[in-house]
Amino acid sequence: MPLREVCMAKLLSRFPEDFQGTTSAKEYQDGMHVFYQKHVCKLSPWPTDLPKSFTGMAEDPTVYFTMLGPSEFSISGSLKTWSVLDKIDKIGYPTLLLNGADDEAQDECVLLFFEKLPKAKWVQFANSSHMAFFEEKDRYLQVVSNFLTKQMVQ
Q1: Which own/partner pairs from 41-47 qualify as long-range (CB within 8 Å, at least 24 positions apart)?
Q2: Which one of 7, 11, 125, 140 is CB 3.0 to 4.6 Å from 106, fit for a cystine?
Q3: pTM of the model
Q4: Long-range contacts of range 20-27, CB-CB < 8 Å, 24 or more positions apart?
Q5: What are phi and psi of 125, to 5 degrees?
Q6: Is the distance from CB of 107 to CB of 98 less than 8 angstroms?
Q7: Mutual orientation of helices 2-12 and 26-39 as an angle, nearest 10°?
Q8: Where do the H-state alpha helices sit in the chain?
Q9: CB atoms within 10 A of CB 135
């Protein structure tokens, strides 16, 4: 998570400061939506399942708040210092890493996983943010299918 916070700070620096206040403020909520449209899901309108998931999380944020805190922009929950980077070199299985060109999971973050996983394949979706499975569905399914098929053949 510390690396994620570094990447998140870089993305946030491109946005106005007026949504960096309290999480309940309208300016914050509006700014968060603009951020999500750029770095979480670029489709307009969003697929119906996406707002439903945000609504569900808002109705009971217990797990989210425990893990991340009230804002994913500034982690304060139990995952604040959590990292697996010191252990992933022991994963001996093929691993597929995916991100979008405008993903909140920026290349800088994904690169460390790619470098440390002994059998990693990294695919970036040029026309996506965080949800390539919505934004580039056909290519996404093809990439995942090809990866899994290759693993079954070996």
Answers
A1: 41/129, 41/130, 41/131, 41/134, 41/135, 42/102, 42/127, 42/128, 42/129, 42/135, 43/131, 43/134, 43/135, 47/134
A2: 7
A3: 0.88
A4: 20/73, 23/70, 23/71
A5: -100, 115
A6: no
A7: 100
A8: 2-12, 26-39, 49-59, 62-67, 107-116, 132-135, 137-153
A9: 19
